[in-house]
Write a structure and sequence with these properties.
Helix content: 25-40%
Radius of gyration: 20 Å
Shape: globular
Order of helices and strands: EEEHHHHEEHEHEHEHEHEHHEHEEH
Number of helices: 13
Structural class: alpha/beta
Largest sheet: 7 strands, parallel
Distance between the termini: 38 Å
Length: about 375
């Protein structure tokens, strides 16, 4: 008799960051995680994580809403269901609950973690098998201060921890952003790949001008320069910029990926498990991109270790032309995991033990959990 789902428990955790992290829509001083534990009738517990950025300043799901969606709607739906058919459970969630992909991602992650533990297999094996167990990881320079960003990049290059950097621009006026970017390219560009993320901050005319200037500087990749719904401009920029255009907020589902590809988009897609509903669900978007000849990039919602390693298991099954940005745990001052991921030589190692391969530190979880 197969195991059933007995219980889903969620807690909200607030973890401080090592420095302010500046995006076009907010500046982060801490990161909030929703941690899920899914208990099966055979005693196996799977863990998952749902993380967004800056409450509701980035996306449509806040940590409080994610917890509420799981506790109030998704948990009652799943309790009593057979725990070993992830596809059937995902289909049930999608049939009964619209949207809420962050909440669904935490559940799908926990289901896969538990199934991997039950079978003695890493999650990557459940997703088809890892092409590699060592994945490249860039670092985002986002203090908001040019000299601090350069110093940070110099230190990380000297340590050998990263050889690719992404800059967050769009929060300040255009000319200040261009000067900031050019200074970092001059300082670091001969030793590292430099990329920028505009976080949808530009209108079409500004994006045309901005991408031309970034091209001239030698920027390798330009992420989401225009609003997610401005797909025509995104496609146009991808066809006319030497730098690759990375679609992020514009592509959450396989339907989004198909629509942009059929319009003629020729850049890359930023994959994120939270946007698509989980480590298995995100592969549908990845496969659309592969069929359309669109590049792949392993994106992050600045998750903690649980969400990061869940993403890495999915990314390990794909040929990622643009690598990953799974540096989320490195941005945090502390962790709630007993066995942190190993970052070195511009990459991170994928755990090969059953399930996700990480274990919660109960003392740390209790210390950082948000008290009701």
């Amino acid at each position: 008799m197969s195991a059933t789902i007995e219980q889903l428990d969620t807690v909200i955790v607030d973890l401080p960051t090592i420095r302010p992290h500046k995006l076009s829509m907010t500046t982060m001083g801490c990161q909030t995680l929703v941690i899920l534990r899914l208990t099966r009738s055979d005693g196996i517990v799977g863990i998952g994580e749902a993380t967004t950025i800056g409450g509701l300043s980035y996306g449509v799901e806040s940590p409080e809403a994610i917890k509420s969606a799981i506790d109030t709607y998704l948990a009652p739906l799943l309790i009593g269901q057979a725990a070993d058919n992830v596809n059937a459970l995902v289909a049930l969630m999608n049939q009964c609950v619209r949207g809420n992909t962050f909440a669904k991602s935490a559940i799908e992650t926990a289901l896969l973690d538990a199934q991997g533990k039950a079978l003695g297999l890493p999650v990557s094996s459940l997703l088809g098998g890892a092409l590699t167990t060592k994945l490249p990881v860039l670092w985002t320079l986002a203090s908001g201060d040019t000299s601090k960003d350069i110093a940070e990049g110099e230190k990380l290059l000297e340590e050998g921890r990263h050889n690719a950097f992404k800059l967050k621009i769009g929060a300040r006026d255009f000319r200040t952003d261009m000067q900031h970017t050019r200074a970092i390219v001059v300082a670091l560009g001969d030793r590292a790949s430099i990329r920028v993320d505009v976080n949808q901050a530009w209108d079409t005319s500004t994006a045309v001008r901005g991408c031309a200037e970034l091209d001239a500087m030698g920027i390798d990749l330009i992420e989401q320069p225009v609003a997610a719904q401005n797909r025509e401009a995104l496609v146009h920029l991808s066809q006319h910029c030497r730098a690759a255009i990375l679609a992020d907020e514009a592509v959450a589902s396989s339907d989004d990926g198909f629509d942009i590809a059929r319009r003629g988009f020729i850049g890359a897609y930023a994959l994120k498990i939270a946007k698509s509903g989980g480590p298995a669900s995100v592969l549908q978007l990845a496969h659309v991109a592969q069929a359309a000849g669109v590049g792949l990039y392993g994106g992050t919602m600045l998750e903690g270790t649980i969400g990061t390693v869940a993403s890495l298991h999915a990314w390990s099954t794909l040929p990622l032309q643009w690598g990953t940005e799974m540096f989320g745990p490195l941005l945090l001052k502390d962790d709630i995991i007993e066995n942190p991921l190993h970052f070195a030589n511009s990459s991170v190692e994928l755990p090969q033990t059953p399930g996700l391969g990480v274990t919660i530190d109960e003392d740390k979880l209790n210390y950082y959990r948000r008290k009701d």
